[in-house]
# Entry
Amino acid sequence: MTRGAVALLGFGRFGAAFAELLQRAGHRVRVHDPHAQVPAALAAKGLADALADAQWVVLAMPVPHLRTALAELRPLLQPGQVVFDVGSVKLHPCEQMDEILGEDIAHVGTHPLFGPLSLARGDRPLRVVLCPSAAHAQAARSVGELFRALDCEVIELDAAIHDRAMARTHAMAFFLAKGLIDFGVDDSLTLAPPSFQGMQRMLDAVRGDAGHLFAAIQRENPYAQQARAQLLAALDAVHRQLQTPADDDSLAIPGSAP
# Structure
């Protein structure tokens, strides 16, 4: 097994950007994705070829396809290989890896908190969340070292804690962005004060990094539906408050904490 070799399964926007990041750090990358155009220098002949000498196996396919991919992968994986996913949701993927890979194949859940835009901008430090499997502490250490070598700050969290936090941040950013776009907000709006320009930057980030993942981020996170309901209730309460006489001070938006 070649030390440092990476099998990258999935070559979408993030997979392509992550492959470049790994290569710049000196890793040999082999890519398998029958649904994408993969450069000849990276393309494996098939799944078995991609896995053959890999130390790390990166699952970069859409989250809804993960279970099927794991079932196909399992007979081809060897002890000593470390499998990790890079999806935006962690609870269900970690459960699926525990179930299908078990104690025999080392695995860990990860969520890189960066995407193609932040990589293209050269943002540093990059951050990544690790959600270790109880049976594979060494795998978490190994993957953490891999990401640190890529100039990433590593944050270790329980998968459920991660998903609760992402439901109120990541999922809500996408929810608001989708609503604003469907409402008619677009790049042609010229009368935009600085407060709105900040929202425009949010829209650009969502579109550029992972706008195509909207449904998965909302549906695969078990806490996203509750967060959406709470946000809608809060907005409705503000809407109703504005329809009744009230002291303007009670409607003011609180300033930033000191």
